[in-house]
Amino acid sequence: xxxxxxxxxxxxxxxxxxxxxxxxxxxxxxxxxxxxxxxxxxxxxxxxxxxxxxxxxxxxxxxxxxxxxxxxxxxxxxxxxxxxxxxxxxxxxxxxxxxxxxxxxxxxxxxxxxxxxxxxxxxxxxxxxxxxxxxxxxxxxxxxxxxxxxxxxxxxxxxxxxxxxxxxxxxxxxxxxxxxxxxxxxxxxxxxxxxxxxxxxxxxxxxxxxxxxxxxxxxxxxxxxxxxxxxxxxxxxxxxxxxxxxxxxxxxxxxxxxxxxxxxxxxxxxxxxxxxxxxxxxxxxxxxxxxxxxxxxxxxxxxxxxxxxxxxxxxxxxxxxxxxxxxxxxxxxxxxxxxxxxxxxxxxx
Amino acid sequence: xxxxxxxxxxxxxxxxxxxxxxxxxxxxxxxxxxxxxxxxxxxxxxxxxxxxxxxxxxxxxxxxxxxxxxxxxxxxxxxxxxxxxxxxxxxxxxxxxxxxxxxxxxxxxxxxxxxxxxxxxxxxxxxxxxxxxxxxxxxxxxxxxxxxxxxxxxxxxxxxxxxxxxxxxxxxxxxxxxxxxxxxxxxxxxxxxxxxxxxxxxxxxxxxxxxxxxxxxxxxxxxxxxxxxxxxxxxxxxxxxxxxxxxxxxxxxxxxxxxxxxxxxxxxxxxxxxxxxxxxxxxxxxxxxxxxxxxxxxxxxxxxxxxxxxxxxxxxxxxxxxxxxxxxxxxxxxxxxxxxxxxxxxxxx
Lengths: 349, 349
Known about the structure:
CATH topology of the largest domain in chain A: TIM Barrel
CATH architecture of the largest domain in chain A: Alpha-Beta Barrel
Number of helices of chain A: 10
Helix content of chain A: 25-40%
Shape of chain A: elongated
Strand content of chain A: 25-35%
CATH superfamily of the largest domain in chain A: Alanine racemase
Number of strands of chain A: 17
CATH class of the largest domain in chain A: Alpha Beta
Largest interface: A-B, 59 and 59 residues
Oligomer: homodimer
Number of domains of chain A: 2
Order of helices and strands of chain A: EHEHEHEHEHEHEHEEHEEHEEEEHEE
């Protein structure tokens, strides 16, 4: 079976490229002495998570409890949920996971840690806790190294909780000094911070600038996408994920309409502007995306695509595209090897 | 069961508001003498499609064949797929639908009509065909009224095909004269155009400017959203669809982090800028959306939300938000009446 046998739009990923990206990432982190704890948000597939672990990753990172459940059910035994888990329904599910595997979760406040401590006590389970640090990302996380100190103490005092380290997203210029500050603040209490965990794919080739880190969580670079190519020195040949599409209308000489829009590709923007990339027609420009139509300007193409031609589109943002599809076809150079349900898709709770 | 019993994030829609929106839309179209053929892309639910039909709609509109299959399986017997259906796999499925219900599909070229004609002949079914006109939307559709003339003739000549009219999206200032041109062009061949079909929710209260139209296809205004409020005179009280969310972090006095980001709300932009709206905290501003975090600036809120508080967020774009969720909770003023699978979600082919 080849890609020609798939009706469109269809999410496709080239396994040869995926495996090369995994090897290359692992090798880079090995060279830097960093443990790899890849983020599954990009592929949402146990099949690829296992490839990452077999290549040397120490475990995987998830953003949502429901994603972690899919990974643990698939036999993965070390999962970091890099998210504050709050509220009774989620804490009960978290306890269930802790009974099955080695689970780490995030905290950035005493309130979140209290919830974990109460859960560990009630259900008799143990949970590893990573403190989140806001080193420039401006979302969750403690705002100063000093703020980490009482939280680390609180974790260490709670039966059932272990203190696993500090993490941030994304790794950036302020990360090194922030993490050094955390190390010093904890040292005041005689606490050694076991791990310094960075994250991101944009920064992946600059991790030597953050030598305090002991591990890295990258998501997007397993598939790569237009945003990584235009912003971070990745190349089109690193891009494994595409959406297979058909030209459904050629209303003018310069316009082709594709059977994919924001509902198959997202509206996720590119900081340099524009949307998506078509390897076979690099001069084609997405002028606009409707929900179910891609408006493609083909006026600069040497041989513009015809009605019913099939194209392969590299999305701006691989993680967002994956999140829209129920199935992905894994192929090698066009030969379909597996069609898998994206089993962690939609696990938003 | 109330909304308090749902874990977050959870897509919710207030049925009282939905039913009021349906009544109000139908009444407006009745007053204008327009048939209603609502687009199900916004709710993707047979449950609400049936409410629209029971309120007076002549049938429903779908964008994808897979959506039409869900609607026909739910007993809806007149479905317009306002999309060019091309390629053998889809034409075979289309034939199956034609055997079950009254189906209309779109065409904007002789090639597409040839496909329909061959399908009707091979499978012995009949299909209604609407010609698509590009009256300013700049995606698919014939580019001039004159171009509609040979296509209408081609449809009328093909056994099994019926000519159902001309349609556009969105209805706008050029629509009236374009449709008048189509009527005149067809008249040359003695063909009376049976329907002039407009579409859109932004233009919904200005349809008196396009008196040639005989019917209208509106999608978004069944739920309404921030984009309709800021652009088209809809009001917050028309907004039925929200995403229920929890504050998972309060890292600074001015920032609250919500457990929803682009993967629960989309990146679909608002032309006036910004994202989403929270009725209970109208001063709260989304500074940024990560994939799974909403970065909320609450510095202007009289009583900013606390950690673990639950909020209800009206999305920029209702249709995009629906497309991300497997389930929707239908409630009346907070009391949950049904939790339904969004059965036409993910039907991208």
